[in-house]
Amino acid sequence: MALTLCCLSIFAEKTLTVTVTNPQKDTRTDVPIVISLASYGEVRSALVTVGGKEIPCQLDDLNQDESFDELCFLADLGKKETKEYSISLYETGEPRPYPARVYAEMVMANTKNKKLKKNQQNNYIESITARGDAAYTYNLQHHHGVDFESELNGIRIYFDARQTLDLYGKFNKQLELQETQFYTDKDQKAKGYGDDVLWVGQTFGLGAFRGWDGTKPTHVEPVRTRTQRIISYGPLRTIVELVDRGWKADATKAPVNMTIRYTQYAGHRDTDVDVFFNKDVSDYRFSTGIINVKGSEEFSDKKGLRACWGADFPTNDTINGKRETVGLAVLVPQQYIVSEEVANKDNYTYVLKINGTHMNYKVTYTSANETFGYHSAKEWFDYLKVWRREVEAPVIIKTDD
User: Fold this and answer.
1) From its phi and psi, is residue 6 left (phi > 0), alpha (psi between -120 and 50) or beta?
2) d(CA 159, CA 399)
3) d(CA 291, CA 22)
4) Which of 286, 263, 290, 255 is nearest to 355 (CA)?
């Protein structure tokens, strides 16, 4: 390792020191640290060390122009601890390989190949675009849309006007979707693999972004085209995007182009959601929320955190054949909230207003199957209060270059 570091330093184009401070009295692990590369010229490879020891990092090309835009690494910090990270940026080479802690996949449906099991489809793609008048985009992809995971969670997003987030519940902390492809077989189940744990129907599922017609959420339709694409595969975070061009979000107004970006970090059960528009949408209204799982218990702090705990039969549970108990939550910054609607049989809903072209929020969930998670409404709701405190007390990052 010493020789490797020595050789790399000869070709270093830029070295910077990043100081990260945990403001909380709680230990924090896998805290995402993201550094913009806009000021550092061409970057083709990078090395991050702390205390002289190399740690995994990741370079991401967000706008797909073949130049890296951001560097990401994960920090582990004790109570009130400060650490210094040394970053070397190089204009040559390739990103260094590290063990994958996240996974993302898009697979075309391959029903004609009878030799393949339903969880062995292999027509891998990175992007797909359908015209708005396509008859049934839901069945174009295996598992019906892009999926992604960390060690703690697994999510698929339907490739249709719902754009709903559906959930995979795990028993153990591990990556599974490359093997199960969201449809676990008996042998995999015997090995402790998870499965589909949520029925979503026409609901929000876990925090889908929708329109609002003044009385209820509306699907993302009509559109001129809809796209799903994978921006980054890992190893520390995966980024997927949904792009809806020419969306008539309000029949009385001009169409808009929308990009929804989902970022999943390793070691996290929560997922970051960023919504971008091509123009100011202050005059439009939108919505998000979570499904009202049958018989669920609701929690709301009336400040943008809304959650539930309940059980239902997932329609695609291929092995368990039982009611699955889940805890769901969405955390929306208060500046976007117009109203918190009274729960109906389908959803717990927020009506949203975006002053400008961008908003962000977070979603998270747990499955009661988890050996590492939460197993009662009280445990889940107590965890969410801690989660909110962490979200609202980010680490302090200072760069000295």
Assistant:
1) alpha
2) 40
3) 34
4) 286
Query: How far is Cα 134 from Cα 224, in angstroms, rounded to an integer?
Result: 10
Q: How many residues does the chain have?
A: 401
Residue 160 C-beta-side C-alpha neighbours within 13 Å:
15
Alpha-carbon dihedral sign for residues 20, 22, 27, 29: negative
Quote the tokens at residue 383. 């965890």
Q: Closest by alpha carbon to 305, among 323, 325, 290?
A: 290
* 114 has a pLDDT exceeding 70: no
Distance CA(283)–CA(268), nearest Å, equals 34
The residue whose two tokens read 């910077």 is 16
Beta bridge partners of 20: 83, 397
Say if residues 171 and 194 touch (Cβ distance below 8 Å): yes
Burial of 203 (0-12, 13-18, 19+ CB in 10 A): buried
Cα–Cα distances (Å) from 263 to 181, 236, 269, 334, in that order, read 19, 10, 11, 21
DSSP classification of residue 383: H
Residue 367 CA to residue 154 CA, distance in Å, equals 11
Residue 107 burial (CB count, 10 A): 18
199-258: per-residue pLDDT in tens? 999 999 999 999 999 999 999 999 999 999 999 999 999 999 999 999 999 999 999 999
Closest CA to 131 of 200, 49, 197, 226: 226
Helix (H) or strand (E) holding 384: helix 377-391
Measure the CA–CA gap between 35 and 205, rounded to whole angstroms: 32
- The whole-number average pLDDT for the span 320-336 is 92
Question: Are β-strands 165-169 and 195-196 bridged in parallel, bridged antiparallel, or unpaired?
Answer: antiparallel
* pLDDT tens digits for range 29-70: 999 999 999 999 999 999 999 999 999 999 999 999 999 999
